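Hi, here's the filled form for the chain we discussed.

Project: internal
Contact: R.S.
Residues: 124
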Amino acid sequence: QVQLVESGGGSVQAGGSLRLSCTANGRTYITNVWGWFRQAPGKEREFVAAMRSPGSNKNYAESVKDRFTISRDDGKNTVYLEMNSLTPEDTAVYYCAANSLGVIYASPARYRYWGQGTQVTVSE
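And the returned structure, exactly as it came back:
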């Protein structure tokens, strides 16, 4: 099993930045794709960004491209989501996820391991 723990959420004004962290514990060697999803109230969970590790393939949702950056520190078993130029539309609970499929999917159903989520609130 793999356990994921997110941190770094909070409240920020529009135009601000936040960095989310997701630390993995357990059998992390079985996972090779790491992703971030988000879910706003009343909406479905949506893909934000994902990457393969090892490797350099990264995918981003159009809505966050050029504003968000996903990265990973293999030595710390930690994935990061650097979020810049935040807008109120980015307000959501952000979830870290991982799979062992070796392919980056945008569908949450393709990810077996999930963190508990961290709230990000962006005000005007």
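Let me know if anything looks off before we file it.
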